Structure prediction request, 287 residues.
Amino acid sequence: MTLFNLLTILGSAGIHVFAHVALKKTHNRDAFVWWVLLWGCVLFSPVLFFWRPFPIEVWGIMFLSAIFEALYFFAIANAYKTGDLSIVYPLARGLAPMLLLIWAITILNETPSLGGISGVAAIAVGLYVINLPKFGAWLQPIRSLNSAGSRWALLAGLCISLYTVIDRVGIKQLDPLLYTYLALWLTLLLLTPTTLRFVGWGGLAKELRETKFASVIAGFTTLAAYAIVLYAMKNGTPASYAGAIREISVVFGVIIGVTILKEQGSIMRVIGAACVMAGVAMIALRG
Prediction:
């Protein structure tokens, strides 16, 4: 993995952290996500001026990716409705890198090095640990699998891994920014009926009034951050590495939460963040 690609993905994670923080602060996550997607589509509409013909099968790839992206947003919203953050987040974000590693090896025929595999594993462990409630509560999220929130969280992690590996195939035939933009529109269209059912136009209008420009900025950063990751993958970064390293945005979010939002820190956050950083270092040096 080249230093340029590593710095690119780390920069992407830094950009995307705004969306993490904004989503955490909002009260109506279903409505907020809808506005984030819509603003991303509006703000990046100039991308259409660079339209070039592309194979029709790419639409099928984008649509398949959009299904899993829409399902991810639906799953994570339901997970937070019925499960605690300390349960949902470790399961969803910790599962995704490990599954993506499996899909990358079996579907994309990637051959990660032992150091790279160890790095991905360290990142997954760190993401699992970072939101545990206390030292010694290692199995609490696993024991909660009989609850709906935990099962929704696992579904969200599965969706992250699947749309990432699908996108790795799609960007081989289309510019990553245009691909991301069109897939975002498809995701928005798929998510709109469910959002209107649970939130309604009134709920959407209320959320826009309350969050003001937060959803606008989050829409820009969300699309830009993921497009950057896709460019890094197109430039040779294995999907298993890119998908794992981009999760360092969670660590950035923890830092902002403790220093700016004045959330209570814990030894578990320090341990988890250290694992993630160690994993990134292993991928950079041995991947």
Notes: The mean pLDDT is 84. The radius of gyration is 18 Å.
